[in-house]
Amino acid sequence: MKAKTFERKFDEGKDITDALDMTKARRPLQEQKRVNVDFPTWMVDRLDREAKRVGVTRQSIIKVWLAERLEHAALNKSLNSDASDAGAG
């Protein structure tokens, strides 16, 4: 399929999956990397209780909480950088 045909089909909302080689598809920045972390028993117990409460696995609750914390840290860094830039001028 030529690129123009592919783009036209895509723009029209038509199914283009037959033209894609999904065996080579990747999600940028979503590759998995295994890490081992040791937690105190009390922390594992609390993680398990919270995971059960919301209906997810321990691993899922850890990932969600870490992602939220990293986003929060990035936002704070951005806001602090903007504030210091504004004060410099």
Question: How would you describe the overall organization of this protein?
Answer:
The chain has 89 residues and is mostly helical. It has a domain at 56-89. Helix content is 61%, strand content 0%. The protein has three helices and no strands. It has helices spanning 3-11, 41-54, 58-88. α2 packs across α3 (58-88). The longest helix has 31 residues, at 58-88. It is flat, with a radius of gyration of 22 Å. The termini are far apart.
Q: What would you report as the Rg, rounded to the nearest angstrom? A: 22 Å
Order of helices and strands: HHH
How far the N terminus sits from the C terminus, by CA atoms, comes to 54 Å
* Helix content range: 55-70%
Q: How many individual β-strands?
A: 0
**Shape estimate:** flat
Question: In percent, how much strand structure appears in the residues?
Answer: under 5%
- Helix count from the secondary structure assignment: 3
Tell me, rounded to a whole number, the average pLDDT: 89
Spans of 5+ residues with little confidence (pLDDT < 50)? none
For the report, how would you describe the main beta sheet? none
What class would the helix/strand composition place it in? mainly alpha
